[in-house]
C-alpha cells in the first residue's frame, strides 16, 4: 500500500447471495488508457489499489458455459421469461427487478416473448445468442426496472477517490430467470 493510494475492496455475489469467484474485476480509470485489474477470490472478494483523486468505473466479467455441473439455464427459465413478458409472476411467484434483468436475454431494454424464445433456444443448445453475466452496484436503486424497462448501469462508478472504498457487486446471469446458478455457490 503506497502513500497517495487507496484500496477499493469488495465482494461479488449472485443475486441470491452466493459468493462468485473467478470474476475479472477491472477498474477503468477515466481519462486514461490505464486499467486496474484483479480476480475475485474463492470467497468472492477483491482488492484494487488506486491513486488518490482519480475517477473510475469498476466492472466485472465472467465467462459462462451452460453445461454440467453449472447448467443453470433451462426451459423453465424460458417459461418464466414468457410469464414475465405477459405481466405474470414467475412460477416461483417473483416479479422483481433482478428477474426482469435476467429475462431480458437479448438486452433490448424490455422483456418480450422473443427473450423467452432465445432463452429456450440457448437452453436446448440451438444456435443463437450466448448467455452472459452482468455486474452492477449491489447498493443501487433498481425500483424503476420493469418488464418494459430493464435498463441499468453496469459496474460501480467512484469519483475523486480520497478514501478506501468498500463496494459490493451483484452478478446476474442473463437467461437464468429463476436464479438456479446461486444454488451452485457458497452462500455469503
Structural class: alpha+beta
Q: Could you describe the largest sheet, including whether it forms a barrel?
A: 4 strands, mixed
| Beta-strand percent range | 25-35%
Strand order of the largest sheet: 4-1-8-6
Shape: elongated
Q: How far apart lie the N and C ends?
A: 27 Å
Which stretches are low in confidence, meaning pLDDT under 50 for 5 or more residues running?
Answer: none
Itemize the secondary structure elements and their pairings.
Elements: E1 5-14, E2 24-29, E3 35-39, E4 45-51, E5 56-61, H1 75-85, H2 97-103, H3 113-123, E6 133-137, E7 156-158, E8 165-173
Parallel strand pairs: 1-8
Antiparallel strand pairs: 1-4, 2-3, 2-5, 5-7, 6-8
Helix pairs in contact: 1-2, 1-3
Question: What descriptive keywords fit this protein?
Answer:
alpha+beta; 3 helices; 27% strand; single chain; 188 residues; 8 strands; 4-stranded mixed sheet; elongated; 4-stranded antiparallel sheet; 15% helix
What would your notes on this structure say?
There is one protein chain. This protein is an alpha+beta fold and 188 residues long. Helix content is 15%, strand content 27%. It has three helices and eight strands. Helix 1 packs across helix 2 and helix 1 packs antiparallel against helix 3.
Question: What can be said about this structure in brief?
Answer:
This protein has 3 helices and 8 strands. It has 188 residues and is α+β, with helices and mostly antiparallel strands.
